Amino acid sequence: MADTKNKTVEQLFTQIKKLGSDGYYNKALALIQEILTRNPRDVDALKCKVVCLLKLDKCREAYHVMSADKDLQKLDFWFERAYALYRQNKLQEAIAELKNAEKSARTEELLAQIYYKLDSYEEAYNIYKALVKNIVDQNTNERETNLAATLASSAAFNTKPLKWVALRESTYELCYNSACYKLAVGDTDGAEERLHKAKELCKKEFEDDEQEFEYEQAPIQVMLGLCEQQRGNSKEAVTLYNNVIKEKHGDAQTVAVAANNIICINKDQNMFDSKKKLKLCTGEQVTKRLAQYQRHSIDFNSCLLSFYTNQLESFRNKSLELQQSGLDLAPLLLATYYNKEKKMDEAVKVLTDAPVRSLAVQLALAQLQKSKGDFEGCHKSLSGLSEFEGRPGYINILAGLLLHTAGPEKCIGYLEDALTKLRSSGSYSASQLNEWTISLARFVLSQNLPQRSATILEYLLSRDSTNIKALALLIRSVSLFDAPRAKDVAQRLPEIQIPSEINLEELEMGVGVTSGRGLRKVIQPEEEKIKEANRRFETKEKKRKKKKGKLPKVLVEGGPDPERWLPRQERSYFRRKKKNRNDAIGKGSQGLSAYSAHVEAALDMSNKKAEPTAAAASGSAANDAKPPPPKQQPKNKQKGKKKGKGKW
User: Fold this and answer.
1) Is the pLDDT of residue 631 over 50?
2) Which of 150, 188, 304, 566 is exposed most, by the fewest CB atoms within 10 A?
3) For residues 18 and 15, what is the distance between their CA atoms, to the nearest angstrom?
């Protein structure tokens, strides 16, 4: 500091110029501050200060210096003002500043860069194309790279991409942007080929600086991962993305894109990893450098992550923020929330009131209306979709909805008009058109309109008289309202030419007939059928087998059981089961039981006759009815005695 105080202003400016050319802007800024302490109104020092602040990316401070000083406001600092606003992401204000600036190559390049940031790719493309065509200098490669980046972004983020122009592929940036365009239009193999070429050119350019090579090839690695992801190789893609994230070779924008792609691969799985990756995609420094489409994609995935983790209130709030930002798919998120909450009417209302009725929104609305049973509303939502106009599947869906809402007449009329348009389009072959015509006639016949079906088939046969399917269906249709005419039409069927070497009788013999039980029977000649019929009708005496009579379950020797008419529990040989044996105790008068009559009769000796002799007793014993002996009950096992001391 002591040396600078002794130097003159001219010496200080000379030293500032040398430091600026060497890139030491911080040291130059200190010398500028020394000059401003001597003379705060020094315009040249203020100019140098603005340039140093812009070079140090202190754009807000630089813009404040230019706005606060009245002398600088009078100077032609429009470009510097616009650049400072551009770096602060105040793009519309930057465009307004550039309108006052003198038109030059650098102002045009800055304007094209602003349009690129605003996703106005067509305006940016026109400016870059004019610059590349009219100016050839040391910045030509950079302009061509920006032109290629504009074309690639338009293909990736716009529904109507700009057409690719012939550009050199002599640098790795040009090869990289060409690969991005190829990948956006669906040429994955071409994109991968150019990415490998870009990697080789990058390695050759930075062969002496390994760290710089790793930094520059990080976006190439991410795009190679995207190629694998679009092919369905999720594991390989995640490996490439994680290498970029873990090694931290690329800038914040590259890391954010890689992390967002991993979230897309995870979907509703591995939520913890997705939350970690989401932190890499957010932040002011990251979002500044991302395109609007990329920011919307990250916000959309963040919203879905809240839904998968069942944070419905957060999901709803994020959906509302996305809708306010103008994202086309935001109404789908809100409809998903209301559908989850079983509020179908609110979901339909959100999609109906969507400011931009994109294709996805219209299809989702039609699906919800169909689920509610509102077929008329579903038909209205699907009608007029130019993306599907003239496609057979789209025609089929609309015809089905018309059948539900307007009836078969309008449905058939719509199908006839659609078939006429398909014929005139020339996009389909004659065989396809014939099949659709036959399908239409079959549908008309199913609606009990045989005359209309016959008209459709006759038109088809007038164009293709050899179509057997159409002729057979015509015979069937005509037979329902004019049988004689159907016979006449049947005459148009071609005759079947049977070769002489084929024996029809043998063919009929070999044909199997399946009976009701699935048995296969061979058709027999007529004589065999007659003989078999005669054998069946011959009368033969059938020997009837004598069936043995059924015996009672309890058979007593010498005849039936005399107690068979008594209830089972009152029979003399009845024994109760163990668990029911005590049920009879206490029932009836005291001393009586079900067996008291038998016991009394056995003990009453007055009614008994004199005992017969032993011979007579033995002879008559066979005729007396004796009840069967009672079944023995199984003996209960004795329970083991407890060990140890006990009382008895």
Assistant:
1) no
2) 566
3) 5
Buried b or exposed e, range 223-235, using 16+ CB within 10 angstroms: bbbbbbbeeeeee
Picking from 420, 495, 427, 496, the residue whose alpha carbon sits closest to that of residue 463 is: 420
Look at residue 553 in the predicted model and tell me its pLDDT. 62
Whole-structure pTM value: 0.63
User: Residue 606: how many CA atoms within 13 Å on its side-chain side?
Assistant: 1
CA distance 558 to 626: 9
Q: Tokens at residue 20, please?
A: 């600026």
Contact 185, 221 (CB under 8 A): no
What span, in angstroms and rounded, lies between the C-alpha atoms of 325 and 19? 45
Using the Cα atoms of residue 411, residue 416, residue 420 and residue 425 in order, give the sign of their dihedral: positive
Q: What share of the chain is helix, strand, coil (3-state, %, to 5)?
A: 65, 0, 35
β-partners of residue 513 are 521
Residues of the chain above pLDDT 70, percent: 80
Q: Structure tokens of 617?
A: 């007793």
* Pairwise pLDDT comparison (42 vs 154), residue with the higher score: 154
- Residue 197, Cβ neighbours under 10 Å: how many? 17
Mean pLDDT, the chain, rounded, equals 80
**Of 357-371, 586-600, 616-630, which range is least confident?**
616-630
DSSP 570: G
The letter for the amino acid at 168 is: R
- The pLDDT of residue 89 is 85
d(CA 515, CA 520): 7
For residue 77, the model assigns a pLDDT of 76
Report the Cα 549 to chain-centroid distance in Å.
Answer: 74
Beta-bridged to residue 385, according to DSSP, are none
What's the first-to-final CA gap in the chain, in angstroms? 119
Please list, in sequence order, all residues whose beta carbon lies within 8 angstroms of the beta carbon of residue 50, skipping any fewer than 6 positions away.
62, 65, 66, 72, 77, 80
Report helix angle 330-340 to 292-308, nearest 10: 10
- Give me 563's structure tokens: 């107690």
Which residues does 34 contact at the CB level (< 8 Å), separation at least 6?
4, 5, 12
Among all chains, which residue has been given the structure tokens 């509020």? 343
Residue type, 637: K
H/E element holding 362? helix 359-372
Give yes or no for a contact between 62 and 53, defined as CB atoms under 8 angstroms apart. yes
Which tokens go with 559?
Answer: 């005849």
Average pLDDT over residues 427-440: 89
